[in-house]
TrEMBL record:
<feature type="domain" description="ABC transporter">
    <location>
        <begin position="14"/>
        <end position="248"/>
    </location>
</feature>
<keyword id="KW-0813">Transport</keyword>
<dbReference type="GO" id="GO:0043190">
    <property type="term" value="C:ATP-binding cassette (ABC) transporter complex"/>
</dbReference>
<dbReference type="Pfam" id="PF08402">
    <property type="entry name" value="TOBE_2"/>
</dbReference>
<protein>
    <submittedName>
        <fullName>ABC transporter ATP-binding protein</fullName>
    </submittedName>
</protein>
<dbReference type="GO" id="GO:0140359">
    <property type="term" value="F:ABC-type transporter activity"/>
</dbReference>
<keyword id="KW-0547">Nucleotide-binding</keyword>
<keyword id="KW-0067">ATP-binding</keyword>
<dbReference type="InterPro" id="IPR008995">
    <property type="entry name" value="Mo/tungstate-bd_C_term_dom"/>
</dbReference>
<dbReference type="InterPro" id="IPR017871">
    <property type="entry name" value="ABC_transporter-like_CS"/>
</dbReference>
<dbReference type="Pfam" id="PF00005">
    <property type="entry name" value="ABC_tran"/>
</dbReference>
<dbReference type="GO" id="GO:0005524">
    <property type="term" value="F:ATP binding"/>
</dbReference>
<dbReference type="GO" id="GO:0016887">
    <property type="term" value="F:ATP hydrolysis activity"/>
</dbReference>
<dbReference type="InterPro" id="IPR013611">
    <property type="entry name" value="Transp-assoc_OB_typ2"/>
</dbReference>
<dbReference type="InterPro" id="IPR027417">
    <property type="entry name" value="P-loop_NTPase"/>
</dbReference>
<dbReference type="InterPro" id="IPR003593">
    <property type="entry name" value="AAA+_ATPase"/>
</dbReference>
<dbReference type="InterPro" id="IPR050093">
    <property type="entry name" value="ABC_SmlMolc_Importer"/>
</dbReference>
Amino acid sequence: MAELDTSGLNTAGLTIDRVTKRFGEQTAVDALSLTINPGEFVALLGPSGCGKTTMLRILAGFETINDGTIQLANRILASTDIHVPPEQRNMAMVFQSYALWPHMSVADNVGYPVKLRGLRGAAYQQKVQQALVLVELDAYAHRMPQALSGGQRQRVALARCLVSDPSVVLLDEPLANLDRHLRATMEHSFRDFHQRTGATLVYVTHDQTEAMALADKIAVMKAGKLVQWGAPETLYRQPRTAWVAGFIGQGSQLKVAADHPGKRLENAALMRGLNAIESERTQSVLVRPEHIQISAALASSAAPTHNQLAAQVESVIFRGERYELTLRLPSGETLLAYHHTAPDLGSQVTVDLQQGWCLEPDQ
Ligand SMILES: Nc1ncnc2c1ncn2[C@@H]1O[C@H](COP(=O)(O)OP(=O)(O)OP(=O)(O)O)[C@@H](O)[C@H]1O
């Protein structure tokens, strides 16, 4: 592919400082602070109604704020008494509905924002061509939007937001209207797009696998508040609270007697905590399925060692590359585990727990 000129893109960082947005009695965004570095790909992740779209609309300038400040590089975009209008923010937004003009070709759709600014002739053609190359749609310049797939239409929308050299690209659930297969393909397109442009991207989604696959950093939101901010691996391995642990990835939460949240327990310490008396088992610990080893069915005469647990197989689901098992422990708690073969339902197995992660209780 030809060398791409993305020098026009004046990527910048965003500082969101204690931003609050209320709609009447309802606080949609509650004292949220984030520092987004230039060129970072950030996902705002959370369940429906947690305030992520409101936060994106605040960044775009479609909503004013009640408290806090937003800065793009050194420039204040919003505070209690400043509100820079959307068209002066140098940001571009991509919606889940694509919002393409049906009567314009792909090239005309992409070029529209710069045509509005008066760009014409060779400079215009070059800008449109560059943006189309970035989303690998240069061969489709003369097609009409109706003659494109959903994924291609979304790439046209991406190209259109790029022509105006935005400092930040805001994306509101851009894959929500696509089927599962296409979403996976588009995840690759978005990653490529980010690598080639180096743009600062803020991406709203309620889909944790999408956020984990795409983002450099994820802001997990709940009821308008930021509950955790970190790299996908950190959120997966070291979720702060029981709620984050349940929201990101798969796993089981067991009660143990252990000291502090934010600590990893290796096998022996974990087993000591699990074997403590009931009243002392007050700390929630997360055990991911990949940290559970299952031994062959327990012979009737064999007992698990003191560092193992006995468990009963309650359900077995075939997932192609592995089986997903639900195991019932003597304490009554359940454990999600993976295994390469399918044990009989109701059979007893021995379980080795390699490690667990101590969680903070939810507020
Ligand atoms: N214009 C508005 N007027 C009143 N309340 C609003 C308005 N916009 C959002 N809200 C409320 O603010 C809260 C946050 O909404 P928001 O759309 O930001 O959530 P979300 O996390 O993006 O949800 P979803 O994933 O369902 O889009 C919700 O309770 C919503 O009802």
